[in-house]
Amino acid sequence: MTVKVTRSMLKRQAIIDGALSAFQQYGVSDTSMDKIAQTAQVSKRTVYNHFESKEQLVTHIIKEIWRQNILTCELEYQADMALDVQLAALLKNELDFLSNQNLQELIRVAIGYCLFNPEIFTAEMSEFFEQETALIRWIKQAVSAGRLRQVEPQKAHAQLISLLKGQAFWPQILHQQPALTNAQIEELTEDTVAFFLAYYQA
Amino acid sequence: MTVKVTRSMLKRQAIIDGALSAFQQYGVSDTSMDKIAQTAQVSKRTVYNHFESKEQLVTHIIKEIWRQNILTCELEYQADMALDVQLAALLKNELDFLSNQNLQELIRVAIGYCLFNPEIFTAEMSEFFEQETALIRWIKQAVSAGRLRQVEPQKAHAQLISLLKGQAFWPQILHQQPALTNAQIEELTEDTVAFFLAYYQA
DNA sequence: TGAAAAGTAAACTAGCTAGTGTAAAAATAC
DNA sequence: GTATTTTTACACTAGCTAGTTTACTTTTCA
C-alpha cells in the first residue's frame, strides 16, 4: 500500500528542509523568513500557512531533531562473551552516532539556538544528553553479573561518554576538527575500552 | 605610581562591559548597537568612535576573552611527592578554572558566535582548547621519570580533560546543570585521579 | 585661559525584519 | 465540471537595524 503524499505535505517538507539548510549556514537569528521561503522555493505566504510564526518553525525543527535522535540501537549484555568485545561494539555504535556529519549540523543549530534560549531545553530535549540507554543498561547488567566492579552505572556511563565526546564530538561541533576517520574511530574505541576496563573490570 | 586613567579609557571599558553583558543576555545577533550604547550609558556615536563597526566590537571582545583564558597556573612535577596528590592538585586547578561562572558566560558568547562564524576560530583562538599546558608538562615529566606508563602525553591529557569537561563544563554551558559545588568538584577530582592512575601509573 | 579632543542628543538614511491582506491561479476532490 | 483547498505574487505595515550627520557641550591639558 502506497501512502498518499499530498502537495501540501510536500510543500511543508520543503519548508522544513529549506529552513534547516539556511539555519545550518547562517544560524537561526540570521535567517529571515524571506530567505527560508526562497531556499524552499515556496512563497512566503505558504510558509506562514504552515507555521504561525518563525518561533514555531524553529521550535518545531529543533524538537524534530531531538526526536530523531532518541532512536538508538539495542545491544544487550551477553553473559558468554568477553567484556572488551562487547564494550567495543557498544562504543563503536555510539561513535558512529556521534560522528554522523548530518547529525552534527543539526545539533549545531540546536545548540546555537538553545545557548541564549535555555527555556526550550525542556525535559524532553535534555534527554538526548542522557539517553544512551543501551550502554547504561549494559553496564548495569555487567555489574549485576559480577563482571564489572560495583559502581554507580550513571557515573561509569558518564565517564565513557565524556571520553568519546571529548574527542569525537565537541571538537567537531566547534569546527575545530574534521570528523574522525574510521581508523581514528577504531583507535579511540580500543583506547577507551582498555582504559575503562583496567579500572572497572572485576 | 598611579596609572593615568583617561575618560576615554573609562568610556571604552564601559562599552566593552555593556556589550559583553548584553551579549550574555541576548546573544550577539540579537544585540543591537543602540542596546549596547544604552547598556553602557554612553551615546551611540561614542561607541562608533571607539569601534568602527559591530563586527570589530564583537571580534575584539571575543579575542579578549580568549586572551584572558591563556593565563593558566603553573604547578610543576615534584619527584618526591605521591602521584595521586600531585594529579589531584592539577585537576582541581583545572576544575576551578572550568567551573568559573564568569568564564562560562564569556565562553558561551564566544561559542554562540563561532558556531556560525567559524572563520574567526583562528590559531590563536583554538589555543584555549589545547593550552592546558601545565597538565601536559606534568604528564611528560612523570612519564620521563618512569612513574607513568609510556604514553603519548597528548592522548592522556585529552582523556583527562574530556573526563573533566564532560561533567563540569559542557552540561553547564548548555544550561542543563548548575555549576558544581565544592563537594562535587572534590568527588570528581578523586574519581578521575583513581580512574586515570589505575591505568597509567607505572 | 583657551584650544583641542572627546562625548552628547537627536534626527536621518537606507535597508532589512516579521507578519498581513488581497486577488488571481493552480491543484485537488468529488 | 464544479466546489474547495492550497499556493502564488505582490504590495503593505510598523518597527528595528547598522551606521552617519549635525550642532552642541564637556573634559582635558598645556
Automatic annotation (TrEMBL), chains A, B:
PROSITE patterns: HTH_TETR_1 (PS01081), HTH_TETR_2 (PS50977)
DNA-binding region coordinates: 32-51
GO molecular function, one term: transcription cis-regulatory region binding
HTH tetR-type domain location: 9-69
Entry keyword Nucleotide-binding: no
Keywords carried by this UniProt record: DNA-binding, Transcription, Transcription regulation
Pfam families hit by this protein: TetR_C_7 (PF14246), TetR_N (PF00440)
Name this polypeptide is given: TetR/AcrR family transcriptional regulator
Organism field: Pseudoalteromonas rubra
Taxonomic lineage: Bacteria, Pseudomonadati, Pseudomonadota, Gammaproteobacteria, Alteromonadales
